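To: structure desk
From: M.T.
Subject: fold request, one chain
Message: Could you run this one when you get a chance? Sequence is below, nothing fancy, just the single chain.
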Amino acid sequence: MHELAASWFERSTRRWDDWPVEALLRAKRTSRISVVIPARNEAGTIAGIVAGIRRALIDEHPLVDELVVMDSDSTDDTAALARGEGATVHEVRAVRPDLGAYPGKGEALWKSQFVTTGELLVFIDADLTGWGPHFVTGLLGPLLLSPGVALVKGFYDRVLDDGSAATTPQGGRVTELVARPLLNLHWPALAAVVQPLAGEWAVRRDMFQTLPVPVGYGVELAVLLDVVAAAGLDAVVQVDLGERAHSHQSVHDLGVMAAEIIAVAHRRLGLPPSCADELWQFDRASAPPWRARPVPLAERPAAVPTVRSAGAQAR
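Reply: Done. Structure tokens follow.
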């Protein structure tokens, strides 16, 4: 492993239980904390996630100030179920309509900046079937207790979806086959980031609002690279959250995600932009067997533009 990466891993990798909720409440003081859940058609899981966070971290322990669901064109009962459990729900397209709208996870996170007030933003995926409120507290610990930390990445053992209940410490297919090889090849100081695409992460608002945000699944890799470029490697901490279970996507859906990740990396390497915005995929059962899938390549500009240092590259 690259020397820088190994050194960073030793000093910047923590466990969720390093920060009991009582310690976080003492450290919180006047800080406002917003938990944001981007969701599209997650009626099967959203109520349990919202209810679990509300009960543990609003009702029992007053740590979280805002619990917000960003609904991205759901056609099921996601929005109603989230409201019923106490979340504030915003339709992504209705937030700042003057700015237009894109489909995608990154768009939901970017627009959440206009409807939340927390200095600390915690993002949690909406498809979780195995998780706990400690996901939130584990991600908040470094931000509340270490002023120099700007971004906290979660990682976890993944519960396999083969019915065995077995776990693996590996990331998902796009993580292991695309994202981590890209980091190892082009940003070797980040080779020890266990799950760069994890949907559970937290960031300081004053950092996030200075970053461009890809509208799709490239948001997590982009934020990681851009925070390190702006503030250096020690501005990032990763936290072991234990185990995580969630729904799994088809290989074709993951192919589109992989294309987004590659495009994000190319832009940050200064390579020419992609000449195509679609991915051709083969499916023998279809007629014709080839189909084109759109690849979201747009990036939103910084919500609050600022001059950022070009130094501290993690190369």
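Reply (cont.): Residues 199 and 288 are 35 Å apart (CA to CA). Let me know if you need anything else for the meeting.
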